[in-house]
Amino acid sequence: MIELNQISKRYGSLTAVRELSLHVPAGEFFALLGPNAAGKTTTLKILCGLLSPDSGSARLCGYDVRAEPMKARQRLAFVPDFPFLYDKLNPLEFLRFTGKVFRMAPADLDLAIRALVERFHLEGQLNKTIDSLSHGTRQRVALAAALVHDPRVIVIDEPMVGLDPQHARVVKDVLKERVREGAAVLLSTHQLSVAEEMADRIGIMHQGGLIAVGTRDELARMSGQRGPLEAAFLALTQSAENR
Fold first, then answer.
1. How many domains does the chain have?
2. Each residue of 158-199: pLDDT tens digit?
3. Does the reported pTM lie above 0.90?
4. Which residues form the domain of 119?
């Protein structure tokens, strides 16, 4: 579902991403971790076609992101860390607009909107303009809009920012349900607890490279650290720093 093959991206003398390869199959929840400036957001933007790599390729559901961008994006949901919303629309208008962009049939769109509005507890917010909503409510609107066309690949950068515990639980449950239904989820986060709870596999980036990939137990063995994911993360990134 998600394929990154030897991706590199440079900005002048800075190599933001270095020869990164990653495969996330259908039905897997993959968490991407790393310190600030590790290259996580650049990697996600390359995968979603918002940036072009200097070398390497990215594919979604078998479609090359650069050669067949429309086919790739029809199957993609991307929620950045600061999602852009049309502030003078209300959530219902924004959800309808998003569904029309993906050329959804009106009946299918109405069914999807009703289900997502109920699931993300947006019933009381539908007639308010988006610019009047709290940060957490805007985040829920962005997530609902991203899922309205039933994407097969879901890419999210820091999805829990601004969410209270109740709505963070809803988002976690929805994402896990999509994985069980066969979607591939790639989540970038600094919240190690989210990765530890949710991910089937975890990748750790450092200085533009992917330094470790595996399950929680596999990362513990690689690092020689038992206990919480934090211990393995710190040991692996420190080891990479010292090389």
1. 2
2. 878 778 889 999 999 999 999 999 999 999 998 899 999 999
3. yes
4. 84-150
